């Protein structure tokens, strides 16, 4: 007897499901397809036109640009809020103003949520928040990056404290996933009040010029409280946060280029903290000589040059992604590849304030070092630093504790670390820039390096102050003593003779030597002491 014919099956026997009535399930499927189509179309054509009129894409248009074509899987597209009062019971649109799901970016799984400004202005309510909570939990469980496409009016006022509690759940997950999975925030419209704290807790923040604004209190409140008059863009626009506050890591001209940059960044990051960054084949020979460096960098330590040109010469195909390029420009932080392997580059920038370390540069580099260490990205540190910036503003602004952040980040980092000293490396700034004494694995130097407590002129003025003052010709005496000090303590092999530099190399060998050192260190394992967490400087 066949399974279909069996009317009294034995226990455990598989039975066939009775066929549905003709057309019944097909009708249901057609209803579902029509409903999905309406949901994906948004609240109305008029709302979509209004969004486009502001120079902004819709949530689903953004999703389509972020993910590989046809790979996005949406969840909870039929979710609706259950709030009442203030007319909410009569307005229960599907999605509740946020699109959530996952897809592929360059073939790798990525999660994303996108506020839909057409629905409640993208404001966050209870159901809206729960969708994001679920997505963040899924990203954590799957061990995959999450991208937030932010375009919302903050908390949904009609839902009161439940909306605020929704933000708390997002913040908690931001912190729990910090250093576990990459978290990226893309600001594409307003992001005000408590909503701004989630991007601040993520690893990278992108903003689009002209449409994105992010602030705790808007211009009207600022004027009412302080009397200062300022526009939305000047207060919290992309350029303000990219060059003044340092909140934004990237400022982009339009949404298309912004989302393409997000895709590029994701291609350089591992899926989570248990994986290495994705390698990529490179046609740039590992042993390529970098002869151009001999002309790019002046031997005179007082002459400026652009460190970006050095990085471009060293890395694969001259391609790198600079982080926070408009803020704290006296230091350069970038992601690049060497022989196909992702590296993080930290470099003093002699063309901006002579490359000194100050409060902002220390903070910028410390955060970048910490991010690279979180996601198993080896560090290459290019040193050409005259010291920390002196001044009352710097001292009273806390240069001691801010500089200590960079020191802490390097000392705490367990990824492979290679230091290269190009020219000057003076004082405490030399130590902080991943010196041998704080744990760099390999320290290399060019024959133009000068490692010392301070420059020869300053050192001579301190050490030989009395002798210079008593001399018949102080200027001639000072010049002679400066020359003697430099010859005795600042020659390029002084640190190498004492084991503080592992090798003095020809600049034209730089790329090959860096790649060789990083290859040797690829399996590095450096466990930290058992502890709940460190208490890093604030």
TrEMBL record:
**Coiled-coil boundaries:** none
Q: What is its EC number?
A: 6.-.-.-
**InterPro entries from the UniProt entry:** AccD/PCCB (IPR051047), AcCoA_carboxyl_beta (IPR034733), ClpP/crotonase-like_dom_sf (IPR029045), COA_CT_C (IPR011763), COA_CT_N (IPR011762)
Key words of the record: Ligase
Q: Region annotation Disordered: residue ranges?
A: 1-25
> Ranges for the CoA carboxyltransferase N-terminal domain?
25-281
Q: Which GO terms describe its molecular function?
A: ligase activity
Q: Which residues form the CoA carboxyltransferase C-terminal domain?
A: 285-534
Q: Which Pfam families is this protein grouped with?
A: Carboxyl_trans
**SUPFAM superfamilies (alphabetical):** ClpP/crotonase
Q: Does the keyword Ligase apply?
A: yes
Protein name in UniProt:
Acyl-CoA carboxylase subunit beta
Organism placement in taxonomy: Bacteria, Bacillati, Actinomycetota, Actinomycetes, Kitasatosporales
């Amino acid at each position: 007897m066949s399974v279909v014919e069996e009317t009294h099956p034995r226990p455990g026997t598989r039975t066939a499901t009775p066929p549905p009535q003709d057309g019944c399930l097909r009708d249901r499927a057609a209803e579902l397809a029509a409903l999905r189509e309406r949901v994906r179309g948004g609240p109305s054509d008029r709302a979509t036109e209004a969004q486009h009129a502001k120079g902004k894409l819709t949530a689903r248009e953004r999703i389509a640009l972020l993910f590989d074509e046809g790979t996005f899987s949406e969840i909870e597209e039929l979710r609706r809020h259950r709030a009442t009062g203030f007319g909410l019971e009569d307005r229960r649109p599907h999605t509740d103003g946020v699109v959530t799901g996952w897809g592929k970016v360059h073939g790798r799984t990525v999660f994303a949520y996108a506020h839909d400004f057409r629905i409640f202005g993208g404001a966050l309510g209870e159901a809206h928040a729960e969708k994001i909570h679920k997505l963040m939990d899924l990203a954590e469980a799957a061990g995959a990056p999450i991208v937030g496409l932010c375009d919302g009016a903050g908390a949904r006022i009609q839902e009161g404290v439940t909306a605020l509690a929704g933000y708390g759940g997002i913040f908690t997950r931001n912190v729990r996933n910090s250093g576990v999975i990459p978290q990226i925030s893309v600001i594409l419209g307003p992001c005000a009040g408590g909503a701004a704290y989630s991007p601040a807790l993520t690893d990278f923040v992108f903003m689009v010029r002209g449409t994105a604004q992010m602030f705790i209190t808007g211009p009207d409140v600022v004027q009412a409280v302080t009397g200062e008059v300022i526009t939305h863009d000047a207060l919290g626009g992309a350029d303000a946060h990219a060059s003044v506050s340092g909140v934004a890591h990237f400022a982009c001209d339009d949404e298309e280029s912004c989302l393409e940059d997000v895709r590029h960044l994701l291609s350089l990051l591992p899926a989570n903290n248990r994986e290495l960054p994705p390698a990529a084949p490179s046609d740039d020979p590992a042993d390529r000589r970098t002869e151009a460096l001999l002309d790019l960098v002046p031997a005179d330590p007082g002459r400026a040059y652009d460190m970006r040109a050095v990085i471009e010469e060293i890395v694969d195909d001259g391609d790198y992604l600079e982080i926070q390029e408009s803020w704290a420009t006296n230091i350069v932080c970038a992601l690049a590849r060497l022989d196909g392997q992702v590296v993080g580059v930290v470099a003093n920038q002699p063309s901006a304030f002579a490359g000194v370390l100050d409060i902002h540069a220390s903070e910028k580099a410390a955060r970048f070092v910490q991010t690279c260490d979180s996601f198993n990205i080896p560090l290459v540190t290019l040193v050409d630093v005259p010291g920390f910036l002196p001044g009352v503003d710097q001292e009273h602004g806390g240069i001691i504790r801010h500089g200590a952040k960079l020191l802490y980040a390097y000392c705490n980092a367990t990824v492979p670390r290679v230091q290269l000293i190009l020219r000057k490396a003076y004082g405490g700034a030399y130590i902080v820039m991943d010196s041998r004494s704080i744990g760099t694995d390999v320290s290399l130097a060019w024959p133009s390096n000068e490692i010392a407590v301070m420059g020869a002129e300053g050192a001579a003025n301190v050490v030989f102050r009395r002798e210079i003052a008593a001399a018949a010709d102080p200027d001639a005496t000072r010049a002679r003593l400066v020359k003697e000090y430099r010859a005795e303590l600042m020659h390029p092999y002084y640190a190498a003779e004492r084991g503080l530099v592992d090798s003095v190399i020809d600049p034209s060998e730089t790329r090959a030597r860096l790649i060789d050192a990083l290859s040797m260190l690829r399996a590095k394992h450096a466990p930290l002491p058992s502890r709940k967490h460190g208490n890093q400087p604030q």
